[in-house]
Design a protein that fits this description.
By secondary structure, the protein is an alpha+beta fold. It folds into 3 domains: 90 residues, ATP-grasp fold, A domain (Dna Ligase, domain 1), CATH 3.30.1490.20; 131 residues, D-amino Acid Aminotransferase, Chain A, domain 1 (2-Layer Sandwich), CATH 3.30.470.20; 148 residues, Succinyl-CoA synthetase domains (Rossmann fold, 3-Layer(aba) Sandwich), CATH 3.40.50.261. It is 35% helix and 25% strand. It has 13 helices and 19 strands. The strands form 5 sheets. Strands 8, 9, 10, 11, 12 and 13 form a 6-stranded antiparallel sheet that branches. The protein has a 4-stranded antiparallel sheet with strand order 1-7-2-4, with helices on one face. Strands 15-17-18-19 form a 4-stranded parallel sheet, with helices on both faces. The protein is elongated and about 80 Å long.
C-alpha cells in the first residue's frame, strides 16, 4: 500500500525525523490559512504540493494547461491562487500515464532555504535477507540515474535485524554524506528515526529524496526531510490500524480495490487476454507465455494457494468488468490447491456471469482428474489445454479469430 507524502511525513515525525512545518488541505481557502500561519513564524517561502500517488509532480502538467504540481510561493495570496489552479484538476506526470490523477488534496508547507540535497532510503535487501540503508550525496534526482552513471556515490549499510540500526552505523553513514561538526549528531538521530519508521511500520521502503541541509531561523544548518515516500507491506497492515486508515481508495484502480476485498492479487494491464492463476510466479510465467505466442495479457491475477469457489467467482466478475478482455486463460497448478475446487468455481462463475468469450483452462496437480471431469460434464463451452504452452496457444488463437 502506498500513502501520500503528507502521511509519510506524519509517520516520520512520530519517530523524531525533522520535517518542514505544514498541513494538508482540500480547499484554496484552507491553503491560504495554513500559509498565513507558516509565514507568521518568519518563513519566507511556502511550497504547495499536489498529493497523488505518483512521482514527477513538479514537472507534471495539468490537463487544464497549468504547469507543475509543486509550486513555491512568497505570499498567502499566491498560495491561494496556486491551490485554486491545482485542486479538482487532473495532473499528468511521467508516472501517472496519459490518464493522469485527480488532485483532491494539497500539502502546504514551509520551504526553507536549501543548501544541499542528499538521498536516504531504507529497504529490504533480498540478496542478504536483511534491511539495508542507502545514502548518496546526489539527492534530488532519480536514484536509478545515480546507480547507472555514478554508482560509487551510493553508500550502503546492512543492518542486523536482531539488534537494529546501531548509532555507530548512523554516524558512519552521516560521514559518508560528507556531514561534519554540529551536523553529525542530528544526522545520526535522523537516520535512526528513519530506520525505526521503516521497522515499526512494516514498510517495504522509506525514501527521503531530497534529505536537505537547510538554514534554520537561527541561522544554523540543520537536516530536514523535505520530501518523503513510504511503501507499506500489505501483508503486515493488519498490525497497523492507524496506517490502514491512511489508505486513499481514490488513488487506486476500482478493479484492484474490488479484488482486495476477496484477498485476490489483481493488477490491470493493457491487453485483451485475461489470466486467472494460482501463484505469483506462475502468473508471471503465464503472462510471458501469452506474449510469447503473440497475445497480450489483460491482467495479473493471482488467486493464491487455497482459493475458494467464492473467490474464483469474484475473480471472473472482476476480469469481465474490463471491457478490453476478449478471452480468458485459467492456469492452475494444484499443490495445496484442489483442482476440483477450482473447476467447480469455474463452472459456477461461467454460469453466473453468462460468459460469452473464449475460456481456456489448464489444470495440473492435486485431484486434477476430478477437476477435468467436472469441467467436461458441465456442458459448458470450455477449451481444455494439455499444457501451459498448449493453453496459451489456444487462447491466443481463439481471441485472434
Amino acid at each position: 500500500m502506498n500513502i501520500h507524502e503528507y502521511q509519510a511525513k506524519q509517520l516520520l515525525a512520530q519517530y523524531g525525523v525533522a520535517v518542514p512545518a505544514g498541513d494538508v488541505c482540500a480547499s484554496a481557502a484552507d491553503a491560504r490559512t495554513i500559509a498565513d500561519k507558516i509565514f507568521a513564524t518568519g518563513e519566507k517561502m511556502v511550497v504547495v504540493k499536489s498529493q497523488i500517488h505518483a512521482g514527477g509532480r513538479g514537472k507534471g502538467t495539468f490537463k487544464s494547461g497549468f504547469q507543475g504540481g509543486v509550486k513555491l510561493c512568497r505570499t498567502a495570496d499566491d498560495v491561494f491562487a496556486k491551490a485554486e489552479a491545482m485542486l479538482g484538476q487532473v495532473l499528468v506526470t511521467k508516472q501517472t500515464g496519459p490518464e493522469g490523477r485527480l488532485v483532491s488534496k494539497l500539502l502546504v508547507a514551509a520551504a526553507p532555504h536549501i543548501k544541499k540535497e542528499l538521498y536516504l532510503a531504507v529497504l529490504l535487501d533480498r540478496a542478504s535477507s536483511r534491511p539495508i540503508v542507502m545514502v548518496s550525496t546526489e539527492g534530488g534526482v532519480d536514484i536509478e540515474e545515480v546507480a547507472a552513471h555514478t554508482p560509487e556515490k551510493i553508500v550502503k549499510e546492512t543492518i542486523d535485524p536482531a539488534v537494529g540500526m546501531m548509532p555507530y552505523q548512523a554516524r558512519k553513514l552521516a560521514a559518508a554524506l560528507g556531514l561534519t561538526g554540529d551536523l553529525i549528531n542530528p544526522a545520526a538521530k535522523l537516520l535512526l528515526g528513519v530506520y525505526k519508521t521503516w521497522w515499526e511500520s512494516d514498510a517495504a521502503m522509506v525514501e527521503i529524496n531530497p534529505l536537505c541541509i537547510v538554514t534554520g531561523a537561527d541561522g544554523k544548518d540543520t537536516l530536514v526531510a523535505v520530501d518523503a515516500k513510504i511503501g507499506l507491506d500489505d501483508n503486515a497492515l493488519y498490525r497497523h490500524k492507524n496506517i490502514q486508515e491512511m489508505r486513499d481508495l481514490a488513488e487506486e484502480a476500482p478493479l484492484e480495490i474490488e479484488a482486495s476485498k476477496f484477498n485476490l492479487n489483481y493488477i490491470k494491464l493493457e491487453g485483451n487476454i485475461a489470466c486467472l492463476v494460482n501463484g505469483a510466479g506462475l502468473a508471471m510465467a503465464t503472462m510471458d507465455i501469452i506474449q510469447y505466442f503473440g497475445g497480450n495479457p489483460a491482467n495479473f491475477l493471482d488467486v493464491g494457494g487455497g482459493a475458494s469457489r467464492e473467490q474464483v467467482t469474484a475473480a471472473f466478475k472482476i476480469i469481465l468488468s474490463d471491457p478490453n478482455v476478449k478471452g480468458i486463460l485459467v492456469n492452475i497448478f494444484g499443490g495445496i490447491m484442489d483442482c476440483n475446487v477450482i473447476a467447480t468455481g469455474i463452472v459456477a462463475a461461467v454460469r453466473e456471469t453468462g460468459l460469452s468469450i473464449p475460456l481456456v483452462v489448464r489444470l495440473e496437480g492435486n485431484n486434477v482428474q476430478a477437476g477435468k471431469t467436472t469441467l467436461r460434464e458441465s456442458g459448458l463451452t470450455i477449451i481444455s489445454g494439455d499444457s501451459m504452452a498448449d493453453a496459451a496457444k489456444l487462447v491466443v488463437q481463439a481471441v485472434g479469430k
